[in-house]
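Sorry to interrupt, but I need a hand with the structure work. Could you write out one complete protein record for me, on any chain you like? Just paste the record in under my message, thanks.

. . .
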Amino acid sequence: MTKTRPNKKSAVVLATPAQSAKHAVTAVFPQTRSENPMDWLYDNPLGTFPNFVFGILRQSYRGFPNSAVEFGGRKLRPIEGRNAEGALDVTALTAYRVGTVLPRDAPDAFDDAGALLQALDRAACPQEQALLVYLTLCPPSAPMAQI
């Protein structure tokens, strides 16, 4: 079996060595994107460590473009939000806690996670693969904190 490099569609050529390419059967399977944003990260090349997760979100994942806004939005909304009437509210943050860690001279506007994620997308360098670094720190005696 021969596989082509996956992009938006993957083609798999099914043929036995005895068959000629003329008689090979080709099936095309659409490439799907994982709904879990953690699957979009390139993980720590040193492996896993207790109480620590490290990953790099690149500007594309399996041929699909990534954005800080989409990745962060999915982390800020792990479940669907509802308004007071019970209707779906796609802007509602449903994470237990949301906050930003910034240097002293960072603009106050970046205290808002949405504004910070939008600024990351605007500042992305087209010649660089990395878009953002994702860290989860979980000291054994404290609740989990994601940065």
Notes: The chain has two domains: 1-31, 37-146.
